[in-house]
């Protein structure tokens, strides 16, 4: 079993309660579809589609760069 020195047995129950509350609050959103800009940011973003290899690009550019770059490359053909 993993041991974390910063979590005591006394505090563990509070972390479990906090986790349960967080899951309870967001549980009604688990089956919702994408909204607003999610489609653009996740499905159409070239950096996101490249996977783990694009993490440096994701962290060093704005989220619109992956869209703009894809749109520019797509219109050049």
Protein architecture, described:
By secondary structure, the protein is mainly alpha-helical. The chain has a domain at 38-76. Helix content is 64%, strand content 0%. It is built from 5 helices and no strands. It has helices spanning 9-26, 38-43, 46-50, 55-60, 63-76. The longest helix has 18 residues, at 9-26. The protein is flat, with a radius of gyration of 20 Å. The mean pLDDT is 76.
Labels describing this entry:
mainly alpha; 5 helices; about 80 residues
Outline:
It contains 5 helices and no strands.
Q: What is the terminal-to-terminal distance?
A: 55 Å
SS-based class? mainly alpha
Mean pLDDT: 76
- Series of secondary-structure elements, N-terminal to C-terminal: HHHHH
Question: Low-confidence parts lasting 5 or more residues at pLDDT below 50?
Answer: none
Which percent range fits the helix content? 55-70%
Number of strands: 0
Strand content: under 5%
Strand count, sense and barrel status of the largest sheet are:
none
What's the number of helices?
5
Cα Rg: 20 Å
Shape: flat
